[in-house]
């Protein structure tokens, strides 16, 4: 019968067989569950013959880049390249407010940066992807916008352009089996049970045109919400919980001064697969604490609102 340890052993053996005794492989590490488990698993199979490329698009949550470095570079001692490409993404996004346009730009720049880095690795002849079984099914059946949504994940045409063989060690696994494999690989809970986070990152939670200052506001607010949700013991109960920065400013008052500042929306949902979702009835004292902290601690925000919409007809993200 299947145990997490036997899943790992089989997958490690399959990777070794496919790559052979001498070849090298590259992997795009995002910090999400799938690419993280694929990375540690392939590291066990290939050691230093695996290079992980972490494209930091500057659209990540607070502390995420450092956390990936600590976890995979220092703790697991993977061969890790942290590409700090935030400025390049911001430049490409300047003045762009259409959501699909933003996604396309981020996908394109990601591929450019990844490919540039991959070409610097001498002798890489395989590309590792953290494709799961449901992704395999999804790509052969019509699932509406999710096909588009996932498009940034595969490094569009790169395997052919660079003549890389594809290694997909998670291809036969479901999410819960991936997590179990991660546990068998001694990976920490904070990686394996992280809430889903979209590839385009904070860019699609910063409504309208993105700027460094707007990202700063959103990142600070989001860190407070996450901290309070965790403290309330709800982080793993919720499918997702995050902040959205609205593209309007509203009037407020601070001391004797009138303010004209940003609005943060709190979004928290229950879901099992992201296809449908119910807005989470967060405790009012939690909502109140988060609101007070965001308005007090985040410069530039004077109002917090709560999203009480379910999917459908709303979506989980606002863009
Ligand atoms: P929606 O907003 O469509 O989101 O209800 C459903 C799930 O998909 C995630 N999502 C994305 N993931 N790239 C991603 O990798 C994207 O462009 C994207 N858009 C939405 C969303 O966070 C939710 O879990």
From TrEMBL:
Homodimer. Pathway: Purine metabolism; GMP biosynthesis; GMP from XMP (L-Gln route): step 1/1. Its EC number is 6.3.5.2. This is GMP synthase [glutamine-hydrolyzing]. Keywords: ATP-binding, Glutamine amidotransferase, GMP biosynthesis, Ligase, Nucleotide-binding, Purine biosynthesis. It catalyses: XMP + L-glutamine + ATP + H2O = GMP + L-glutamate + AMP + diphosphate + 2 H(+). The keyword Metal-binding does not apply. ATP binds at residues 30-36. GO terms for cellular component: cytosol. It comes from Chondromyces apiculatus DSM 436. One of its GO terms (molecular function) is GMP synthase activity. Residues 2-194 form the GMPS ATP-PPase domain. It is an enzyme of class 6 (ligase). Catalyzes the synthesis of GMP from XMP.
């Amino acid at each position: 019968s299947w145990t997490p340890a036997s899943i790992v052993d089989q997958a490690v053996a399959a990777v070794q067989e496919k790559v052979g005794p001498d070849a090298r492989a590259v992997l795009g590490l995002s910090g999400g569950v799938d690419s993280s488990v694929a990375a540690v698993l392939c590291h066990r199979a290939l050691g230093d013959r695996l290079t992980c490329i972490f494209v930091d698009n500057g659209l990540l949550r607070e502390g995420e880049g450092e956390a990936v470095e600590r976890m995979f570079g220092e703790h697991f001692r993977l061969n890790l390249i942290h590409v700090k490409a935030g400025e390049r993404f911001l430049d490409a996004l300047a003045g762009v407010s259409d959501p699909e346009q933003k996604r396309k730009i981020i996908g394109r720049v990601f591929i450019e940066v990844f490919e540039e880095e991959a070409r610097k690795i001498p002798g890489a002849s395989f590309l590792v992807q953290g494709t799961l079984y449901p992704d395999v099914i999804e790509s052969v059946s019509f699932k509406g916008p999710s096909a588009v949504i996932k498009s940034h994940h595969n490094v569009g045409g790169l395997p052919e352009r660079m003549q890389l063989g594809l290694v997909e060690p998670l291809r036969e696994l479901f999410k819960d089996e991936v997590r179990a494999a991660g546990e068998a690989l001694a990976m920490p809970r904070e990686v394996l049970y992280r809430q889903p986070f979209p590839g385009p990152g904070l860019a699609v939670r910063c409504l309208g045109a993105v700027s460094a200052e707007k990202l700063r506001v959103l990142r600070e607010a989001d860190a407070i919400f996450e901290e309070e949700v965790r403290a309330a013991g709800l982080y793993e109960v919720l499918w997702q919980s995050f902040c959205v920065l609205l593209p309007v400013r509203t009037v407020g008052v601070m001391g004797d001064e009138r303010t004209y500042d940003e609005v943060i929306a709190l979004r928290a949902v229950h879901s099992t697969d992201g296809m449908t979702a119910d807005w989470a009835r967060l405790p009012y004292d939690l909502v109140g604490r988060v609101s007070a902290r965001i308005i007090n601690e985040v410069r530039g925000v004077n109002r917090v609102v709560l999203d009480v919409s379910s999917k459908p007809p709303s979506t989980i993200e606002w863009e």
